[in-house]
Design brief:
The protein is an alpha+beta fold and 133 residues long. The chain is 26% helix and 26% strand.
């Protein structure tokens, strides 16, 4: 995940005084949330066997809400699930800068990856029926 500026934090990360530590904490919180909430079973029929990658890009607006979510994957349902999960992330807490103003929107990129192991059905060439009769 990459991260442009740091105007926001989470409840867990808000006590970090070091900006780099806080950024890393926020990134890990978003990644953890996606890992726990991306429903692989719901989209597994749309995923290809093996490694699947969903490239996402989003902004965190001046209120701390994730907006302008873009996703690119091998299948549209994988993109929709990524957008759903990111849109459901709880709003972040704004942090005022030294001049007590907020920066412009922060831009993030997040790569979501997972493996799908599909079992193959092998049919004996002499028996080409899948059902009995």
């Amino acid at each position: 995940m990459s991260f442009s500026q740091s105007s926001f934090t989470t409840k867990k990360c808000k006590n970090s005084t070091n900006e780099r530590v806080r950024k890393n904490c926020v990134i890990k919180e978003i990644q953890k949330y996606v890992n726990n909430n991306y429903d692989i079973t719901a989209i597994s029929s749309d995923a290809k066997p093996g490694a699947n990658r969903i490239y996402t890009r989003f902004k965190i607006d001046t209120t701390g809400e994730i907006t302008d979510i873009q996703a690119k994957a091998s299948s549209f349902p994988l993109e929709i699930e990524a957008i759903r999960v990111l849109a459901s992330f709880p709003d972040l807490i704004p942090i005022a800068n030294t001049d007590n103003t907020l920066e412009s929107e922060d831009i993030y990129t997040l790569l979501i990856t997972f493996e799908v192991n599909k079992t193959q059905i092998e049919i004996n060439p002499t028996e080409k029926q899948l059902t009995g009769n």
